[in-house]
Structure formats: C-alpha cells, structure tokens
Fold ABC transporter ATP-binding protein.
Amino acid sequence: MNNIEHKTLLTLQNLDVFYKHQQILSKVNLSLKQGEILGIIGESGCGKSTLLKSIIGILDKQNATIQGKITYQDLDLLQIKSDNWSTIRGNKIGMIFQNAQDTLCPIRTIKDHFIETVQQHHKISKQEILQQTLILFDKLNLKNGQDILNSYPFELSGGMCQRVEIALSIILKPALLLADEPTSALDTISQSQVIKELLLINQLFNTSIIIVTHNINIVKKIAHNIAIIEQGHIIEYAPTSQIINSPKKSYTKKLLNSVLYLNRG
Ligand SMILES: Nc1ncnc2c1ncn2[C@@H]1O[C@H](COP(=O)(O)OP(=O)(O)OP(=O)(O)O)[C@@H](O)[C@H]1O
Ligand SMILES: [Mg+2]
C-alpha cells in the first residue's frame, strides 16, 4: 500500500445521523489523509453504509437528519446544495457497492457506462473516452479491454463486473473512493483480484480509500488505519497493526475473534 501524505483530504466532526427519531451514528470523528486506506468494521446494522452514504450525500432524504461537519478538501459537504452534488459525486468522490451487477445498467454496454460517466463531467469525444478507458484497463491489468467494452454486464462474471465497476468509479480520478463491502458477493479468487485492483489504484493515483468489509484479512492487508463501529459509535480507531495485535476494547476482540472464526469456517 501507498505511503500516506501529510495533506488531510477528509474530516468528519461530531457527525450524528438520525433516521426519523432513531439515532444511527453518534458523534463520529474521522480524518483521512491523501493516499490513506481506512478500513471500517462493525456488525450488521451498526451504521457503516450510513456513514459512507453521508459522505457522498446519498442518504435517504425523506427519513434522514444529519448534523455535524464533513470537510472534503476545502468543501463543507453538508452545505452543498443537491444541484451542485453532481460536480462532486463521481468526479471528486467515487463509490462502489457490494454487487456491481445490480448497479450497472443491464441494457447498456460497458462502453456506454464509461462514455456517459465521463461526458457528465467533461466535453470529450466518445473515441477519446474509449482510448482513456483502454489505457486505464491496461494499468489495472484488465485483459481484453475491447471485448469488455463491447459486453453487457450480464455477459461478464460477477468478479469481472466488480473490477469494471471499480475502473468506472476511478475513470474521473476522484481523490477519494468509498467501497461498501466490495468483495462480499464474490468468490475467493475474485475477492483477491478486486483487492489487488484497489491497492493498485491507491498506488497509481494516490487515491484515498474507505473500505467497509467483514473480512479482517482484507483490512489487514490493505488498510493503514481501522475504525471499529459499535451501534453508531466509533469505539476504537487506530493503526491497523495496533487494532489487530493489541485491541483495547473487549467488543473489538469479540469482533475480531468472530470474524477470524468465520473466515476459518
Ligand atoms: N433509509 C432508511 N430508513 C430508515 N432506517 C434505515 C434506512 N437505512 C438504514 N436504516 C437503518 O439504519 C441502521 C444502520 O444501517 P446501515 O445500512 O448503515 O448498517 P450497516 O452497518 O451498513 O449494516 P450491514 O453490515 O448489514 O450492511 C439499521 O438499523 C438500518 O435498519
Ligand atoms: Mg451496509
């Protein structure tokens, strides 16, 4: 993994999120440097996806209330109006989800996805976009790029779809990539390819990454720091080696043990 720069990219200060009257996140404080990979671990329902959605401004507006401060570069994200989010989402902050086959449009080719994504932000010809995409595929070791571009999502394996989705999320070179359980729907070989791809992106473009995962082996391998969430509170937040080798909270120990146990099973 890359060396972290001194420059801070993202800070969350006293972030509270409520769905109706239920508090989901409580006084969350986090800070991410350029080039840093942060792993987020916690039980199902503790608020991990809510945290990522808050950062990229896609919380369910009908139900959610958000308080506190999120600063990205010099932008105060909670003050950004919905119309202006389109210049940030995808362009400055990218996000990938658990199952790319659900997020890619089934009736459009991979080529169309790249063209649309880039043209939303830049006036560039289709041909130039496809050239840039093939160069990116090459850097990310995605073989037979032209065939991939001509495919529909259903013609690709789940693992390949996820790798293409990651390439799509990075085509505009956002400084931050949010990854919500990017490997949990995949077999072990595809998991390892996806993780290699994320590490490569971090190394090639110095992209900061926040990765939510249940797989402790993954965070061990790629994260500089880990935050443990219990019922919406960050209860432990430290460099990866410290969390893995000498966790302070009993909840963290319990979580690490259960995850290690599951991985062995
Ligand atoms: N749109 C919503 N409206 C109301 N409650 C919601 C909404 N989205 C999520 N929640 C609730 O917020 C809590 C946190 O959900 P979240 O999806 O952030 O958890 P998570 O840690 O990502 O869980 P998992 O590991 O299962 O993905 C859960 O109790 C969930 O039911
Ligand atoms: Mg989730």
About this structure: The domain at 36-62+84-264 is CATH 3.40.50.300 (Rossmann fold). Residues 48-49, 180 surround magnesium ion (ligand 2) (CB under 6 Å).
